[in-house]
Structure formats: C-alpha cells, structure tokens
Specification:
two-stranded parallel ribbon, 72% helix
C-alpha cells in the first residue's frame, strides 16, 4: 500500500485530482465528457496555484528578510497562503482518498440522524485533508492517525453546520443551505462568546457603522487588486528603510549640474522595487480568487449531480445542502470589516508577543471569516470587527506553533512532487491563515501532537457528545414536524 500511495502521490495533485474527480463523476452517473471536464478544471486550478505561489515566494522572500533584519523582528514564518495548504492536503496519502472517505462518513451520519447536512462543497474537503496530512507527518507518516484527524474535523464541522444552519438561512435568505467549511465554522465559538459579552455592555448593540454607505465611500480602495498593490508597495518601501537615508543626498545631487549617478541609480531602483512588488501583490490578490473559481467551475457539476441524488433519496425529509461560503462573501459588512482588518491585522502581527507569522498571501482569504459571524452580529460592523480581530490574533499563535510541522509536510510534498505551491523559501518556515489558524484544525493537531492517546480519547468524547446532542435535536424537530403535520391533517378533516 505504501508503494501504491507513493506512486500515486508522485503524479502531483494537478494530475491525481483530475483522475479522482473524473472517477467520482462517473460513479454518481455523470457522462464521461462532463466528468472529465470537471476533473481537468481542478487539475488546471492546481497548476495555477503553483504559479501564483511561486510568484509570491520568489519575489517577497528577500524584502521580508530585509524587514526582519532592519527591525530585529522574529517573523520567520512565511505566509504561503491557502494554495500551499491545499497542495499539502491533496499531495499526500490522506488527501488521495479524503473525498470518498468523508462522503462515507457523511452518509453514515445522515442515516443515524447525527447530521442533516449533505456536504457537497467538495473543493473545501482540502481543509480536512490538510489537518489529516499534518497529523500524518507528525505521527511518523501514520495513515490511521491522519484519517482519524481528518474524520474528527469532518464530524465536528458537520455538527456545527447544523447548529448554525437556521441563523445562516434566515439572515442570508438561503433556505435549505448550510456551510460545512471548517475554517468558517471555527469562528462560531468565538462569535458566541464575544457576541454574548458585547451584548452585556449597555448600549453597545446600538454602536454601529453604515456598512452600505462606507462600502460606497471606499470605492476603488475596496478592490482586492488595489489593496494588494498598496500592501505590496508598503512592504517594498519598508524593506528599503535604510536606503531612504540616501534620499537627502539624492535631492542635493539633483541640484548639481551633474547629479551623482550612484545615488540616482539607487533611488531609481527603490522606486522600481516598490512599483514591482506592489503590482505583484496586486496580481496575487486578484489571481487567487480567479483560480478558486476554476475549482468551483470544475466541482459544481459534481455537486449539482450529488444534490439531485440527495433530493431523490431523502425526499420529504429536512436536509441541509452544504455549500461554499463563497455564496455570501459579497455582503457589505464583510467588505467593510475586511478593509478595516487588513492594516490592523498586519500591524498587530508585527508586534504581537510570541507571534512569528506575517500575514501576506492569506489576506486574500479574509472575506471567508464572516459568513457565520454576521448572522449572530446581525451585520453590526463594530461587533463583527472585534470578533474577527480577536479570532485572527489567537490564530497567529496557532500558525506559529504549527509552523514547524507544516514546513515538514510541505517539504515532503515538494520533494515527492516538485509542486511549486509547496516550496518553502530558504530561511523560512511555512504558514497560512487558512487552515492553520483554525480553532478546529489547531485543536485536533495539538491534541494528537502533545497528548496523543489522551488527546485522541478527548477528541472521540467531544465528537460523540456533539453527535449525541445533534441527534437529539434532529429527532425532536422531526417529532414536532410530524405532530404539526398530523394536527393540520386533523383540522382539515374536521373542516370537511
């Protein structure tokens, strides 16, 4: 089995995933051509991820090292973004079978009434594969531990998707939809606790900002590509901090008949670097969402076919269709809070004690923090900002602690597949806000790494308790629905 998995992994995700998704498509009744096209879109997406990640790591490695040296910072964890995490996820033995394994778990939970969510958000299965892959390497390449971690994360996510479904559906007016994405759902505990505390402050709920009005005022500054250009340019400028001491000499030389060529060339190089890194970061911020759309385009036909099967098999029963949070990230509050969080997040990350991670590529994924937060804060900008900031800052410590093992996993994947998305720049460790900063992912990782068998027992207990209470809620709801239907039938009969 080890030789078989090693051979499969050597293909790389760009080859392996099209084959897997084509087979899945055929198994659920899709025509070969449509299934093949879906698989190829996924493969092309992985090629794109490798190119974009290489663009980031190749061009930002030296500026970040310069900033670290100039200000004596300890920011040795390079933000590889979710593309690196997805590459690690799907280029391992765990990722090779994560989709069929999780679909089987989902089916068992449906028939045992421990969930109502059918998770057809197949692209985001990489989150479960990622935490499974990291645990796989932490435990000496143990497939059993890797799948254990992935399945525990999957079960917890499905239960939370059920718990938050009603609030989500009512707020966004999306009946029958839930969000079984673990990164999104991991913000629910922060939301419940912090929102409850803020509501205990007299008058705080009335403190809000007009998100729609502020969104219009941001104008072009609200575009990811413009934000990227600004962030990239600032990083480049800061990395040349020492060189700006030559600026006064440059200005003096410009007043001379023959300006100092050395000084002039130096200043021109600084300007070139600032502009180049600005446009490069802008390209990363714009291309990552566009490449994500490739995955969604590839997986949507498979998701639609799966939904069709579910509708036939569970006709008449209340079932949530698990979809990507991308459905609702265009909300005005999401945009406004993201724009406010980006500079705050970066500045605090630099000075936060114990943190070694500087968010960069992950900024493109900040929009995905809020789909589960907003239904509880009712779109309140101030409350949403506070919850998001606290969760992100805690996540910085998670990323820092997981960095050494994320790096080990990424280096193993790069050695086996040469996937550029998994290439860690020399002198840095690998990090990513999504999914390494997730409360769910980090809790599972830490439990297995630090207290192994005790941690595993606690995780099993946690999932069992969640499943028990979720089943009880589902059965109670079904009984209530049955009684309501029966009462309505009796009233109708009496009327006749």
């Amino acid at each position: 089995m080890e030789q078989v998995f090693s051979y499969i992994i050597s293909f790389g995700a760009s080859v392996m995933m099209p084959i897997i998704f084509t087979i899945i498509g055929l198994c659920i009744g899709m025509k070969f051509g449509k299934a093949l096209k879906s698989g190829l879109f996924v493969g092309v997406g992985f090629v794109g991820l490798g190119i974009v990640t290489a663009l980031l790591t190749d061009n930002f490695k030296d500026p970040l090292q310069a900033i670290e040296n100039i200000f004596s910072l300890n920011l040795s964890v390079f933000d590889m973004g979710w593309p690196a995490a997805a590459s690690v996820a799907y280029n391992t033995a765990v990722g090779a079978l994560i989709i069929p394994v999780c679909l089987l778990v989902n089916f068992v939970m449906l028939i045992t009434k421990t969930t109502r969510t059918v998770n057809i958000d197949l692209w985001n299965y990489w989150h479960f594969a990622f935490i499974g892959a990291v645990v796989y390497f932490v435990t000496g390449e143990s497939l059993a531990w890797g799948y254990f971690a992935a399945i525990v994360c999957y079960i917890i996510t499905l239960v939370f998707a059920d718990i938050t479904a009603d609030k989500f559906q009512n707020y966004y007016n999306l009946p029958g939809i839930s969000v079984p994405q673990p990164f999104c759902q991991s913000f629910a505990p922060f939301t419940w606790v912090i929102n409850w505390l803020l509501d205990r402050i007299p008058g705080f709920s009335k403190l809000d900002i007009d998100a729609e009005g502020l969104k219009k005022k941001f104008g072009v500054l609200g575009e990811p590509i413009v934000l990227g250009v600004i962030v990239g340019a600032i990083i480049a400028a800061v990395s040349h901090y020492d060189d700006f001491t030559n600026f006064s000499a440059f200005m003096a030389s410009m007043q001379q008949t023959k300006p100092d060529a050395t000084t002039t060339d130096g200043v021109m190089k600084i300007v070139k670097d600032i502009l180049f890194l600005g446009v490069t970061m802008g390209a990363v911020m714009e291309l990552i969402p566009r490449i994500t759309k490739l995955f969604i385009d590839g997986l949507m036909p498979i998701s639609d076919k799966t939904k069709e099967i579910v509708d036939k098999k569970f006709h008449g029963k209340k079932i949530h269709i698990g979809m990507s949070p991308a459905l609702v990230i265009g909300h005005p509050t999401t945009l406004v809070v993201t724009l406010l969080l980006i500079p705050t997040y970066i500045i605090i990350a630099v000075f936060l004690p114990g943190n070694e991670f500087l968010p960069l590529a992950s900024l493109a994924g900040l929009f995905y923090l809020f789909p589960i937060i907003l239904p509880y804060t009712k779109g309140n900008v101030v409350k949403t900002f506070i919850i998001g900031l606290v969760a992100l800052l805690v996540g910085l410590w998670f990323v820092t602690d997981m960095a050494s093992d994320f790096t080990m996993a990424a280096k193993n994947v790069y050695a086996a597949t040469q996937d550029k998305a998994a290439h860690v720049p020399d002198g840095f460790q690998a990090g990513s806000m999504d999914f390494a900063s997730s409360l769910f992912g980090y809790t599972i990782y830490a439990a297995v790494k630090y207290i192994k068998w005790v941690g595993a027992a606690l995780l099993v207990l946690l999932t069992a308790v969640l499943m028990f209470f979720n089943r009880r809620a589902i059965i109670k709801d079904e009984q209530l629905a049955a009684e309501t239907t029966a009462a309505a039938a009796e009233n109708e009969e009496a009327g006749k």
